[in-house]
Amino acid sequence: MGEALFYAVLLGMTIGAYYDFCRLIRLVFNDKFIVDFIFCIVSAIAFYCYLYIFNNGAIRMLYMLVTFCGFLLYIFTLGYVTKKLELKISSVIKKWLKLLKNRVKSFKKVLQYIGHIYYNIYVHIRGKKSKEKVNDKAKKRNAKRKHHQE
């Protein structure tokens, strides 16, 4: 039982580290619902696997309490240190994403400009061909009229 409780604390600390990672994603993308939902699902699956391995899937309040204590142990020790680091990292990532977004917008404008050039050339060439077709049809009609008039 001592080994199972040790791994429960270790699982809680691992879930705490995963929570830190999810917190970084939340800080960067400002999307709390989806990230928290995924955190809850992954944590529940990890805890269920732990219970299945060490307790044949039977839920015991002791294991839940010890896992939660491991989670709190991580959050109140390493969590404070990593939170400050995550704030700095998230601000750097936000700047990079903003720069990347601006680059993509400018590249998109270049592609649109090339598309406009291609379209204008296409319309110009097609316009000449359609004018030639109209002129050919007009010549044929005029020839038929002259032929009928004679």
Q: What value does the average pLDDT take? A: 83
Spell the H/E element sequence.
HHHH
Which secondary-structure class do the elements indicate? Answer: mainly alpha
User: What is the number of helices?
Assistant: 4
Largest sheet: none
Radius of gyration: 34 Å
Considering DSSP H and I runs of 4 or more, what fraction of the residues is helical?
over 70%
How far is the first residue's CA from the last residue's CA?
116 Å
Give a count of the beta strands, DSSP E runs of length 2 or more.
0
Q: Beta-strand level of the residues, as a percent range?
A: under 5%
Q: Point out poorly predicted stretches.
A: none
Shape: elongated
Set down the secondary structure blueprint.
Blueprint: H1 2-29, H2 32-55, H3 61-76, H4 78-149
Which key phrases capture this entry?
150 residues, mainly alpha
